[in-house]
Q: What sequence folds into this?
C-alpha cells in the first residue's frame, strides 16, 4: 500500500501509569444520581476517562518532576520565582510578573486594579471566572466577538475575532473613558476553543490606540492560539510558536494566565505586564489575597515546574500532537455526523446539545442532560457549557439563554491515548443512537456564584 501521509505521534513515551477504575452502568447511574446530575460533583475515582477539563490535569514531564526537587521554599526571594520571571520575560515578553495560585487569582487582581464601578469591559465572549471578577469589581461585561462565534456551524477560521463595529458602538454609547481595557481571550474557551487572528489583534490595537483604550489578554491558551495562527494565517507558516507568541504579546499592556493549561502544571497562574504602575499595585495587592509577591500562593517547586512547563509548551512537536489528538476525535465525530462546534477547537470538542437533543427545551438543560448521559454510558466525564454556565441576568434575575448550548469534552495534555479517544467516540455514537429516549432535567439547587460547579438536578419524569 502506498502511504500518502505520515501520522504524527506523541513526542513522548509513558514512564509512570495511573490505573483507572472500571465501573458498571449500575454503578454509574448511582454515582450520577448522588451527584445531582452534575459531573462536577462526581468523585473522580468513579470516572473512567476524565474529559471534564484540561485545567491542572496535564501530565508533567520528567524534566518538570526533576525540577520539583529543586524547590526553594523560602518565604521570600525563592530562586524558582526568579527563574519563572526570566521565562515569562523570554517567552511572553513582559518585564513584570505577579504569580498567583491560579488564573482566577490573577483575574481578581487585574480586575481590582483596572476597573472602577460603572466601567464597561468589552471582550471576545466571556469566560465564567473572568466575567465574574470583572463584575465583582463593579464592571459590566459586553460581548464584542464576531457573530460567527455564536453559530456552531460556521467554519470561520478565527471565530475568536473581535467585531470592531460592535466595539465602536460601545465606545460611542458609553465613552472610551468608561472602558479601562478590552479583555481579549486567546483562544476563546466558551466559543469552542476558537482562535483570534494576528491581523484582528493588530486592527483592534490600532483602534484602541486611537481611543486610548488599553488591551489586556487572557493568555491562558495563547500557545494553542499561536499554533492556529501558524497553520491558518497567511505569513506565519514559517514562524516558530515562540515567535508568534511573542508577537501576540507585544500588542498588550498585560496578560493574565491560568498556568494550569498551556504551561503544563497542576496548579499556578500569574499576571504579567509592561506597565510598572499596574505591576506595583499588583505586587502590593497580591500580598493581601494570595501570598508574598515572590510566591503568590504557590510553593517554590510549583514555580519551578511552571518555568520548565513554559519551555516545553512552545515546542512544535508538543503542540502539534496536543491539537492533533483533539482533531483526531473531532474528525471521527464529524464523519459520524454528530453535531459538534466547527471548526474543531484547540483544547476541546464541543457537542451541540441543541441539535443533539432537539426535543429538550433549553430550560430543561439539554447540555447538562447530555453530559450526564455520556457518563452513564461509558464513564467518560464531560461538562455543561450552556444555560447553567451562563448564569442569571444581573438585573432581571432570569436565566441567561446563551445561543450556544454545548457539552465540552476537554483533553488533558499528554494524558490519554488514541485508544481512549476511540472509546469516547464510540460512547458518544451510542448515546446519539438512543437520543430520542433521553429526558431533560429540573434544577433543584442553585448556588449564588458560578452555579454550574455546584447546582443539582433531578431527572424529569
Ligand atoms: N481564563 C480561561 C480562558 C480559562 O479557561 C480559565 C479556567 C480561567 C481563565 C481561570 O483559570 O481555573 O486557573 O482559575 N478554565 C478552566 C476550564 C476552569 O475548565 O476551562 P483558573
A:
Amino acid at each position: 500500500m502506498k502511504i500518502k501521509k505520515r501520522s504524527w505521534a506523541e513526542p513522548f513515551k509513558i514512564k509512570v501509569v495511573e490505573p483507572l477504575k472500571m465501573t458498571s452502568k449500575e454503578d454509574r447511574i448511582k454515582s450520577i444520581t448522588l451527584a445531582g446530575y452534575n459531573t462536577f460533583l462526581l468523585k473522580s475515582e468513579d470516572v473512567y476517562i476524565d474529559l471534564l477539563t484540561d485545567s491542572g490535569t496535564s501530565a508533567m514531564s520528567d524534566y518538570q518532576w526533576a525540577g520539583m526537587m529543586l524547590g526553594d521554599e523560602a518565604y521570600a526571594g525563592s530562586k524558582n520565582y526568579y527563574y519563572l520571571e526570566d521565562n515569562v520575560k523570554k517567552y511572553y515578553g513582559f518585564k513584570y510578573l505577579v504569580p498567583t495560585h491560579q488564573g482566577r487569582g490573577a483575574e481578581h487582581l487585574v480586575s481590582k486594579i483596572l476597573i472602577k464601578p460603572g466601567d464597561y469591559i468589552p471582550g471576545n465572549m466571556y469566560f465564567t471566572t473572568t466575567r465574574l471578577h470583572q463584575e465583582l469589581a463593579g464592571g459590566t461585561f459586553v460581548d464584542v466577538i464576531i457573530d460567527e462565534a455564536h453559530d456552531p456551524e460556521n467554519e470561520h477560521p478565527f471565530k475568536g475575532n473581535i467585531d470592531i463595529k460592535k466595539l465602536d458602538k460601545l465606545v460611542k454609547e458609553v465613552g472610551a473613558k468608561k472602558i479601562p481595557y478590552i479583555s481579549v481571550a486567546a483562544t476563546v474557551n466558551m466559543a469552542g476553543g476558537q482562535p483570534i487572528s494576528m491581523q484582528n489583534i493588530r486592527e483592534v490595537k490600532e483602534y484602541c490606540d486611537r481611543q486610548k483604550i488599553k488591551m489586556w489578554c487572557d493568555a491562558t491558551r495563547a500557545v494553542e492560539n499561536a499554533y492556529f495562527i501558524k497553520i491558518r494565517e497567511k505569513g506565519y507558516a514559517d514562524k516558530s510558536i515562540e515567535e508568534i507568541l511573542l508577537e501576540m504579546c507585544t500588542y498588550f499592556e498585560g496578560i493574565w494566565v491560568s498556568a494550569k493549561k498551556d504551561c503544563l502544571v497542576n496548579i499556578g497562574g500569574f499576571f504579567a505586564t509592561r506597565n510598572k504602575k499596574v505591576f506595583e499595585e499588583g505586587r502590593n495587592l497580591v500580598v493581601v489575597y494570595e501570598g508574598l509577591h515572590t510566591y503568590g500562593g504557590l510553593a517554590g517547586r510549583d514555580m519551578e515546574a511552571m518555568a520548565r512547563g513554559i519551555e516545553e509548551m512552545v515546542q512544535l512537536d508538543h503542540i502539534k500532537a496536543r491539537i492533533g489528538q483533539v482533531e483526531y476525535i473531532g474528525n471521527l465525530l464529524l464523519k459520524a455526523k454528530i453535531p459538534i462546534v466547527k471548526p474543531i477547537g484547540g483544547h476541546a470538542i464541543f457537542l451541540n446539545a441543541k441539535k443533539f437533543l432537539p426535543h429538550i427545551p433549553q430550560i430543561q438543560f439539554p447540555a447538562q442532560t447530555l453530559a450526564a448521559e455520556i457518563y452513564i454510558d461509558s464513564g467518560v466525564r464531560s461538562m455543561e457549557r450552556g444555560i447553567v454556565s451562563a448564569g442569571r441576568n444581573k438585573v432581571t434575575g432570569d436565566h441567561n439563554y446563551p445561543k450556544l448550548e454545548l457539552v465540552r469534552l476537554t483533553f488533558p495534555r499528554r494524558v490519554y491515548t488514541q485508544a481512549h479517544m476511540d472509546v469516547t467516540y464510540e460512547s458518544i455514537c451510542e448515546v446519539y443512537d438512543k437520543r430520542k429516549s433521553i429526558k431533560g432535567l429540573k434544577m433543584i439547587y442553585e448556588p449564588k456564584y458560578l452555579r454550574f460547579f455546584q447546582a443539582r438536578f433531578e431527572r424529569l419524569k
Remarks:
- Residues 53, 55, 102-104, 127, 129-130, 185, 189, 218, 220, 258, 260, 269 surround F0G (CB under 6 Å).
- The mean pLDDT is 97.
- The longest helix spans residues 316-335.
